[in-house]
Write a structure and sequence with these properties.
Layout lengths: L8 H14 L3 E4 L4 H13 L3 E3 L9 E3 L13 E3 L16 H12 L7 E9 L8 E7 L2 H10 L1 E2 L1 H7 L6 E6 L23 E5 L4 E5 L4 H4 L2 H17 L2 E3 L2 E6 L5 E7 L6 H5 L9 E6 L3 E5 L5 E5 L3 E5 L9 H6 L5 E3 L2 E2 L5 E2 L11 E2 L5 E2 L17 E5 L16 E9 L9 E3 L3 H9 L2 E3 L11 E3 L12 H13 L9 E5 L18 H13 L4 E4 L2 E4 L12 H7 L4 H15 L9 H18 L12
Parallel strand pairs: 1-5, 3-18, 4-9, 6-8, 8-10, 13-24, 24-28
Antiparallel strand pairs: 2-3, 5-6, 5-7, 9-10, 11-15, 12-13, 12-14, 15-16, 16-24, 17-23, 18-23, 19-20, 21-22, 25-28, 26-27, 29-30
Helix pairs in contact: 2-4, 10-11, 10-15, 14-15
Manganese (II) ion binds next to loops.
Length: about 625
């Protein structure tokens, strides 16, 4: 399609402005067709940056290898350029918007020379849903165009939906590597050096300007940039929630379903939970989203979650037919692989795939690689953050309502992180405010090697620390406000904190995880039904010792440990939050959350006090 096919004068003017400034060789508007996808992919193949995979092993799939400097999101180069610094808050890099635009204008000048400028009109959420948001990404990357084609809804239907004056979020992207006359990428992944990479957000004007990186969340601007950073700001203004959450449907043997969302920091198994295969007979899990959910009230007063992406951008290493068969099958065809190893017969291989490397490989940096199991220090063949991009509808357990324009009613919200000690397998909040408190203290333990000053816990509130587009203290306040806005508190989702990562003092896993996590989901389902066996504890509601069916290999002693309330550990937790975490947010930290912390401390001390007075005064 061409610019002439667009009937939106505002969009046409913006396209022309960028074209004149970035001076691409040509401009092309994506229609979203299969034929177009193939054409763009062939261009990348010709330039030597995409490798077609063996059609018998991975039909219609391609491998890309990025520049070694361009392998993940770069938080240091990610900016929230709000008018006031205070509005970016303590968790974001702030630069004055006028200054940042000036810097970036210097970089964008002529930056698309020798390239095609692609215009991607895309919808986050099903096309036509009143909750969806339309973005337009202008990019000079075929890789980005093809990934956006899988990850979002792109093309004609969205252009129609936008009409002549619809609102859209301006998303400008360039790899930052113009080509000289006759020059070609010649097998090199185009990007700019790290100090020229900018992932810039202008929350007030709802704009995203990204320069210099071609990878993942830096470049696929519908994902973290729009659907989280800019969306959190829109959600604050409009009264809803944009969250880093999977959505799953849990169905019991009687056929009753409940929807659960879950927020975990990166590398804590969101995709695995979203696609898990229950080990308890008769229970089923179906997937609606593995990364991002937008939540808002439905007319019936319940909170609904909508899946906003159309594909999965999943971490590859560790994915196997054992750990996540649904992801393996989803990524069997029509998939883009980035930074994994290539086999001699043009299939892909990675660490943790479940079988040995078949012969000589080419690793993610393009070098020969032969597996040496005697060498523990061998460099991996695939980058630890290598990815597959696969259409969501290829997932065997995709939920039939994953594209419901209204979203689905949420019964439970889960928070979690990697906590080898202290935090039990599961505990539940008593109220929405208590649940907001649990979300605000989410964190993962870090190894001594990476120990930050002070605490050994890296806090990642609501698993959103890198993705809140405004002041995190105001974000907590917004969470509390959403709870207060409920027509009826009893209709709100129940909030839980789960921890699959408990270890014994000897370092052995206490809980098998994966499919056995369905046992915890079952208890949560029963809590929502009002039929669960629960006990009230100082930290919240918990299962009785026999309320969760034990998986094979988990003894009653293990279960006691998994469900133990470690009073001293929790008191240390309280102290850490009081000293190292909450002060970060200054005056913006809502008083209600400080009050939650105080009452938790009081309840823990009272539980410790065995003189019978219950006041905690004996100080034992
Ligand atoms: O690079 S992405 O943001 O798309 C993936 C991730 O870091 O979670
Ligand atoms: Mn994510």
């Amino acid at each position: 399609m061409t610019v002439n096919d667009i009937k939106h004068p505002g969009l046409v003017a913006w396209i022309n402005e960028i074209k004149d400034y970035c001076t691409p060789d040509s401009v092309y508007v994506l229609d979203g067709s299969a034929e177009e996808y193939d054409r763009l992919m062939q261009k990348a193949v010709k330039a030597g940056i995409a490798i077609p995979l063996n059609p018998e092993k991975k039909p219609h799939s391609f491998l890309f290898r990025s520049d070694p400097s361009d392998v993940a999101r770069v938080e240091k180069r990610t900016f929230i350029a709000s008018e006031k610094q205070e509005d970016a808050g303590p968790t974001n890099n702030w630069v004055d918007p006028a200054e940042l635009k000036k810097t970036l204008m210097g970089l964008y000048k002529g930056c698309m020379k020798g390239r095609t400028m692609y215009v991607i009109v895309f919808s986050m959420g099903p096309v036509g849903s009143e909750f969806s948001k339309i973005g337009v990404e202008i990019t000079d990357s075929e890789y980005v165009s093809c990934n956006m084609d899988i990850m979002t809804r792109v093309g004609k239907a969205v252009i129609e939906e936008l009409g002549t004056n619809g609102f859209f979020i301006h998303c400008l992207h360039s790899v930052g590597k113009p080509l000289a006359e006759g020059e070609n990428d010649n097998g090199m992944w185009p990007c700019a050096p790290i100090e020229k990479k900018y992932i810039a957000h202008f929350p007030e004007t709802r704009e995203i300007w990204s320069f210099g990186s071609g990878y993942g969340g830096n470049a696929l601007l519908g994902k973290k940039c729009l659907a989280l950073r800019i969306a959190t700001v829109m959600a604050r203004d409009e009264g809803w929630l944009a969250e880093h959450m999977l959505i799953l449907k849990l169905t019991n043997p009687e056929g009753k379903s409940r929807y659960v969302t879950a927020a975990f920091p990166s590398a804590c198994g969101k995709t695995n939970l979203a696609m898990l295969i229950p080990t308890i007979p008769g229970w089923q899990v179906h997937t609606l989203s593995d990364d991002i959910a937008w939540l808002r009230y439905g007319k019936d007063g319940r909170l609904y979650a909508m899946s906003v992406e159309a594909g999965f951008f999943g971490v590859v290493p560790g994915t196997s037919m054992h750990s996540n068969p649904n992801a393996m099958i989803a990524a069997q065809k029509n998939t883009i692989y980035t930074n994994v190893a290539l086999t001699e017969d043009k299939d892909v291989w990675w660490e943790g795939i479940g079988y040995d490397a078949p012969g000589k490989l080419i690793d993610w940096q393009g070098n020969e690689w032969v597996q040496d199991k005697t060498n523990k220090d061998q460099k991996p063949s695939s980058h630890p953050n290598s990815r597959f991009t696969a259409p969501a509808n290829q997932c065997p357990c995709i939920s039939d309502d994953w594209e419901d324009p209204h979203g689905v009613p949420v019964s439970a919200i889960l928070f979690g992180g990697r906590r080898p000690s202290t935090i039990p397998l599961v505990h539940g909040a008593r109220t929405w405010t208590h649940g907001t408190f649990l979300g605000s203290i989410v964190g993962s333990e870090i190894t001594a090697a990476a120990l930050d000053a002070g605490s050994g816990i890296r806090r990642d509130p609501m698993a959103m620390k890198p993705f809140i587009g405004y002041n995190a203290g105001d974000y907590f306040k917004h969470w509390l406000n959403v709870g207060k806005a409920a027509k009826d508190q009893s209709l709100l989702p129940r909030i839980f904190y789960v921890n699959w990562f408990r270890k014994t003092a000897e370092g052995k896993w206490l809980w098998p995880g994966y499919g056995d996590n369905s046992r915890v989901l079952k208890w949560i389902f029963e809590v929502c039904d009002g039929t669960a066996q629960t006990v009230d504890t100082p930290i919240g509601i918990m299962p009785t010792l026999d309320a969760i069916d034990r998986p094979e290999g988990v003894t009653e002693e293990d279960m006691k440990e998994l469900l133990n309330v470690d009073i001293d550990g929790w008191l240390r937790e309280v102290e850490d939050i009081r000293k190292n975490h909450y002060p970060i947010f200054g005056d913006k930290l809502p008083k209600e959350l400080w009050a939650q912390l105080d009452s938790l401390e009081a309840d823990l001390k009272a539980a410790k006090c065995d003189c019978g007075c219950g006041c905690g005064c004996c100080g034992k």
